[in-house]
Amino acid sequence: MLHRYAVIGNPIEHSQSPTIHAAFAQQCGEAIDYGRILGDRHDFAGDVQRFFAQGGLGLNVTLPFKEQAWALVEERSERAEVAGAVNTLIALADGRLRGDNTDGIGLVRDLADNHGFVFAGTRVLLLGAGGAARGALVPLLESGLRELVIANRTPERAHTLAALGSGAVPVSGCGFEALAGERFDLVINATSSGLSDTVPPIPADLLAPGGWTYDMLYGAAPTAFCRWGRAHGVAHSLDGLGMLVEQAAESFRLWRGVRPRTAEVIAMLRAAD
Ligand code: NAP
Fold first, then answer.
1. Is residue 242 lining ligand 1, measured as CB closer than 6 Å?
2. CA 132 / ligand 1 centre spacing (Å)
3. Which residue out of 65, 160, 191 has the highest number of ligand 1 atoms within 8 Å of its CB and is therefore the one to mutate?
4. Are 34 and 25 a contacting pair, CB within 8 Å?
5. Which of 7, 13, 119, 137 is the 20 to 30 A CA-CA neighbour of 106?
6. Could you say which of 66, 76, 79, 134 is catalytic?
7. The pTM is what?
8. Interatomic CA distance for residues 234 and 207, integer angstroms
9. Could you tell me which residues come within 8 angstroms of residue 195 by beta carbon, excluding any fewer than 6 positions away?
10. What is the pLDDT of residues 39-86, one digit of tens each?
11. Distance, CA of 160 to CA of 124 (rounded, Å)
């Protein structure tokens, strides 16, 4: 019997999640059927309720429903609680829904496991304070980094996000202009500026020697932030395709109890670009 999963969003036709999960299922020998659902912008809760009432076991949630999914669930992981957004819905045995957010752990695993970035002792800059940045907060603070700075176009949102940090690791928020004279080992772009092929207004000398850049955005051509990194002598300039596959792998693990190998799936998607 096929176990049913799906990704829900609006729009949804561009989603690569069905391809990724089909590859995971084949690799792990798991009998799952993973589909796409075009969510009703006015009845997300109804769509979710119908999917699970018809025997569905898990959903991935994408734009614009991650915050609604957070509000809908009866139980949340800590990282989802802080993120204020849920991208993974899990049907519990007692009929309740649990929400998790696997975006941030996907980011950390891509950097650490796939590319060998060593977080221990590093000073990291997170650009942006929207949903993607919020999802990254707890996994970043648990990565072993020494200090996290969050910079955002609207500085108040960076301050608010920084205040959600646990306290064990120094974390602060600021606007872009406050970055003058600062140096970081890793700069992560979690703004949506790349959608208009631009880079946030950050100083040119932001990177410490041997520094890395990571753009959560990805595409067939290098993103504006990847190009910025290369133009500023970065050691490694990565895009977010690996994060996409790693967040899916964490969802798959939560649902199926088995962690798929991701490298071959990332390579398959790269080759298809
Ligand atoms: P969001 O919630 O709409 O937040 C957008 C963020 O970008 C805010 O911090 C906003 O600042 C900032 N921003 C927007 N336009 C800007 C500009 N022109 N200059 C500087 N800052 C700007 O979006 P999101 O969901 O966090 O997504 C952010 C990015 O992450 C998108 O590119 C998305 O594709 C990517 N993402 C990738 C993955 C993955 O798996 N690879 C997963 C999730 C998201 P204000 O607060 O001032 O408005």
1. no
2. 7
3. 191
4. yes
5. 13
6. 66
7. 0.95
8. 7
9. 217
10. 999 999 999 999 999 999 999 999 999 999 999 999 999 999 999 999
11. 18
Q: Cα(138)–Cα(143) distance, rounded to whole angstroms?
A: 9
- Atom index in ligand 1 nearest the CA of residue 196 equals 18
pLDDT tens for 221-251 read 999 999 999 999 898 999 999 999 999 999 9
Whether residue 66 lies in the annotated active site: yes
Ligand 1 atom nearest residue 128's Cα: 9
Q: Find out whether the beta carbon of 246 lies less than 6 Å from any atom of ligand 1.
A: no
* CA gap 158, 154 in Å, rounded: 7
Q: Which amino acid is at 3?
A: H
Task: In whole angstroms, give the CA distance from residue 66 to residue 52.
Answer: 17
